[in-house]
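DNA mismatch repair protein MutL
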Amino acid sequence: MGKIKRLPQEIARKIAAGEVIERPASVVKELVENALDAGASRVEIDLDKGGKALIRVRDDGQGIPAEDLPLAVERHATSKIGSEADLEAIRTLGFRGEALAAIGSVSHLIITSRPPESPLGARVEVRFGQKSEVVEAGCPQGTVVEVADLFANLPARRRFLKSDRAETTRILETVKALSLAWEGVSFRLKGQGRLLLNLPREDLPDRLGRLLGLGKKDFLPLSLEKEGVKLFGFLSRPEKARHDPRSLYFYVLRRPVKSSLLARALNEATKGFFMSRSYPAGAIFLDLPPERIDVNVHPAKLEVRFRTEGQIFSLLHQAVRQALLEKSRLKAVETRPFTPQLEDIPLEGALESAASSKEAPVVAESTFNYHSPGPRPLGQILATYILCEGDEGLVIYDQHALHERILYEKLRRAVKEKGLAGEPLLFPVVFEAQAPIIEAAEEARRFLQRLGIEARPYGPGQIAVYSWPRGFLKEDIPRVVSDILGRLSQGRMPEGSLLHEILALLACRAAVKAGDHLTEAEMTELLKEAERFPSDYCPHGRPTSAYLKKMDLERLFRRK
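Structure:
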């Protein structure tokens, strides 16, 4: 007798339900999405014991006709799809016809509904997979869905649920995410009789501010449309950054999604504006023809696949970058973020003169002018910070961040004009590298020349560097070249962002470090150079200076 057996229907239903319904928050997500698809203007959710004992979702949508209620709780029964072609034109949140059937197989499910044209509503119950007959029921227009004793027939699944408070928190986050895409709908969430969330109908900035604890002025608007793809939304200003990336929401066709592609594009676009390990808050929406995406790649529809990933990456990157650059055009008295402008610098071209240029190096040993006018430093603290008197108080400079920004700007200008001057090495520097790095070295030779670097595959698993930008430490060659080629090998990053990262890396390696003792003349020259580049952030997003105004000092010493 064969070992492979067909599973009983009851077990198959439980397995299928487990793919769609993982926890109470999954139930709430599916039921709220159904309400939104039904055109609800008001959604109310009640919980008991974190949704384990009871979840009730009430809406004022179009309702379900009595004759459709039996099918509504059957698997693969849906009003959203009628043919295979419809799979490529999905704009609704739900479409598979699995959610209610899955919920009914692992709970006591009661649906009461009335369409606007019906004088009386109807009710159907499903007790752990066993469906009752449809009966008449008095109710207002819309639908009420009650889910009781979730996973009571699956003790193992129920044991893996978290505490009531933890499950309630997950449900709260789920409702918040959905509410941001449906700001024209009011939402109310109650748990154990306590009001947890109450959102009136409002515009998107108001709802964002309410949920994220920010004001309208704290957001930057995003708007860009190209090749049939529209991007819009709001992003918090850098000074309102969070230490947790979970305050940023992505939406595709108003569906909350998780996407490594979108997250990576955002991360690249915000570099230089947000400090390390700080993240923007907000919501970003993509609207595009449904046939350009696949929303059917995850049981809970949390992930989406784009057919033109490069286009989506570039669109998001450009929209965010433009908004941040626009924000950076502030008055001189305000702090100005670092705003690299590299998008117009080509990575490829006729660069034969790049490595052989005889002109003076862009980054050379400092030649300080001891008699030049300019700001005069008061001194150095901890061999790391430079004190300087400003117009209205005390300015404290981070010497490494300040020098790094100056070098970056010089490098950027040199690369844009004719490339960095390379210097042949007396002996090539040979180091081991992995296959992707070696392949990148072969493909990026002309690009490296523009940076004053000549690097080629040498032997099995090795790379040799034959020339290096003048003025840069040669001890860093293996590490810097490996880092540059590693970034090149990853691809997908827009050219401007890639070049920004590489130049920022070179500037960081060449800049004075924390702990370096500087003479008064060196500090003076550094401050003079800084006046040429009006930005108060280094290429990696760290501030180069802090300002203590007169009133701050007076407050410290209780003069006022």
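The first strand starts at residue 42 and ends at 48.
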